[in-house]
Amino acid sequence: MMVDHSTRAHAICSASGAHRWLHCPPSALLETKFPDTTSEAAKEGTLAHEMCEAKLRNYFFTKEFSKRKLTNRLKKLSADPLYQKEMDGHTDAYTDFVKQAALCFEHQPSVLIEQKLDLSSIIPGGFGTADCILIGGNVLHVIDFKYGKGVPVEAEGNPQMLIYAWGAYYRYSLLYPIDTIRVSIVQPRLDIFSTSEYDLDTVRTFSDYVSHQAALAVKGEGEFKAGDWCRFCRARKTCRARAEENVKLAGFTERKPPLITNTEVGEYLRMGKDVARWLSDLEDYALTECLAGREVDGWKAVEGRSRRDWVDQEKAFAAIIATGMPKEMLYETSPLSLAKIEKLMGKKDFSATVGDLIEKSPGKPTLVQESDKRPAISNQVTAKEAFKKEN
Ligand code: SF4
């Protein structure tokens, strides 16, 4: 049976948020005060996961999920407004990876797709869903598909994967003599196909640590600790620990409420402006030092993400057209911006020809300091506007 990916629930301590609550246990409970909104990117990810699931089911369970079923399913999924053509290639890359991983087993492994895992042995009330699990001989392999491309995710030391691995081991260790645990992350849009392998002792020790931190987290206990994990925390905008970590407030000792007030937000923004500038200067400096061969503790310079480009575009296009591809398919026609056309025509002609076909929409709300000359705006309806509407 296909899984409804959009209803994948999250426990207070979800495996996907483990990187955060393992470092900062009380964040788990604090987060529940904030709405859990689903971004467009997350919905896209759900759609891509559904495509992956269908492709894997067809490959491994062709009898139950025939080619016809696959075609129908993919047709339905590709009618979704979030579908993009590139999803086909990325989900193929994932399914190819899983097929290859299955071939690495001496005998055909057991294949579990979209397997719900009970994680309550280490996380109170915890559960999760593994995208794919392969088990054969003494090896358990958990594979996760990530469609996002904002943050690269690697398998090595990945707490979410280790938690899933523990959940799968806990469930299947009675049936299989598992002593080796492999975890993989496939993030095709960033070209990441990463695998890590662990012995059982390592996973067991990690599960003890998870169990300890989760017990604190569900009670809202432990220390608030800010770090790079804050960027995925729903409390990140008003979290006191994060604010204080960033502006390094001196002499803070007494216990204050966990969320900062709007007065403090204003103060931190003013102070933070300098912190941001200082950080940027520091980054420039550190990069220069690293490039000069000097050591900056914990940092190094690397090549940025590379970009593919034609060596000779004319030659390349000629070769593609020679294969039968129509020339028009290789070019896009898009309208010039209003400002560019005005520049082409000149202000006067432009205004006389299309002046009445232009509308000016209000700019995107921007945060500035009180000293700025522009009048303040808000989403609140003023008494004057409300009066106008009623009449
Ligand atoms: S934003 Fe605050 S509560 Fe959230 S992880 Fe960071 S320090 Fe913890």
Overview of this protein structure:
The chain is α+β, with helices and mostly antiparallel strands and 391 residues long. The chain folds into three domains: 5-218, Lambda Exonuclease, Chain A (Alpha-Beta Complex); 232-291, no CATH class; 313-345, no CATH class. It is 43% helix and 11% strand. The chain is built from 13 helices and five strands. It has helices spanning 18-23, 27-31, 40-60, 67-78, 86-103, 159-172, 200-218, 240-247, 262-291, 313-322, 338-345, 347-354, 383-390, and strands at residues 110-118, 127-136, 139-145, 180-187, 192-199. It has a five-stranded mixed sheet with strand order 1-2-3-4-5, sandwiched between helices. Strand 1 and strand 2 form a beta hairpin. Helix 3 crosses helix 5. The N and C termini lie far apart (57 Å). Mean pLDDT is 87; it is low at 5-9 and 249-253. Bound molecules: iron/sulfur cluster (SF4). Iron/sulfur cluster is lined by residues 20, 24, 27, 30, 224-226, 229-230, 233, 235-236, 239, 241-242.
